[in-house]
Amino acid sequence: MTILQASRYAGEVWYDDVRFQTDKRPWFGQLREIAAGDFTFAVLGDRCGMATAGVFEKALEVVADLKPDFVLSVGDLIEGYWKDAADARAEWEYIDEKIEATGLPFFHVVGNHDYGNQVMLDVWRERKGFDYYAFRAGDALFLVLNTEDPPTELSDEFIDMIKKATYNVQNDPEHMTAHMQAFYDDIVSRMSPEQLEGMSRIDLALSDEQMAFAERVLEENRDAKWTFVSMHKPGWKSENERYNKLIGLLDGRPHTIFAGHLHAMEYSVSGNGEHIQLGRTGGHAHGEGPESDNVLLWVNVRDGKPTYRVMHLDGIGEIGSYKPQTHSQEAKK
């Protein structure tokens, strides 16, 4: 197997220019030079599937006000699974315009909704060029991976069920619970026990080329004080051999792995690595606890080490919503 060279672009960003010969880039803005020292960034969770209108947009407004050095996603920014490229382009046009308007460097990650069939893959490549890459921010290395390489295509029947449920949820949000129950009942009635069991598994796809790229980047950046890996599906919940190889490559390096996909906020530690599963940032809730709230993650890197703050978007209010009140003398006592 040939080890692909990691090529530099825009100073300290690398991509696989053997596999991807394109002038398109899966990010917006220019990362400022962070030679060393402290910096901040935000991580946004899944906007889709079955997005609640305005939530991701609110998160973008918040980060635009707070001005981190850059923003990471964990994928699933569009509903996707389109058979017509024009539909996929229209979804990307809408959300890309919102992202670019923040004026912040924003780094995309492939999610299954973004890249779930050949049409979606082709539109991604047309608009964003490549789907895995790496960059340096000061003493930290960021490795962005694609867990849909290649994508697992769903049946037309299942895609039709997803599209029907998405339409119902987005056009009748007051009855979201009923629509989701109908979606679940539809799945159970049409699928075998074996198919249902398969849906509960976390299946990753990491190509030989991508693994070779990751290995080379990690080897060439052994001086990094901290390594951040961003992917869509939480590999630590899979039995994927290539993910296990990645963990071997990270052995001995302080690192954090960000993922999404399951729409629930989780934090765990394994050896010298942290696993952070992002909660949703607009996608449909998979549960009812605080871990299922709409959130964004704020990360401070100080002296080479990260600290984290989870911001619940429902707890961030607009100043105009706090109206003047009349206070009686009795109430002041």
Automatic annotation (TrEMBL):
InterPro entries membership: Calcineurin-like_PHP (IPR004843), Metallo-depent_PP-like (IPR029052), STPP_CPPED1 (IPR051918)
Superkingdom in the source lineage: Bacteria
Ranges of residues in domain Calcineurin-like phosphoesterase: 40-264
One Pfam family hit: Metallophos
GO MF entries: hydrolase activity
Name of the protein: Calcineurin-like phosphoesterase domain-containing protein
Annotated source species: Paenibacillus pinisoli
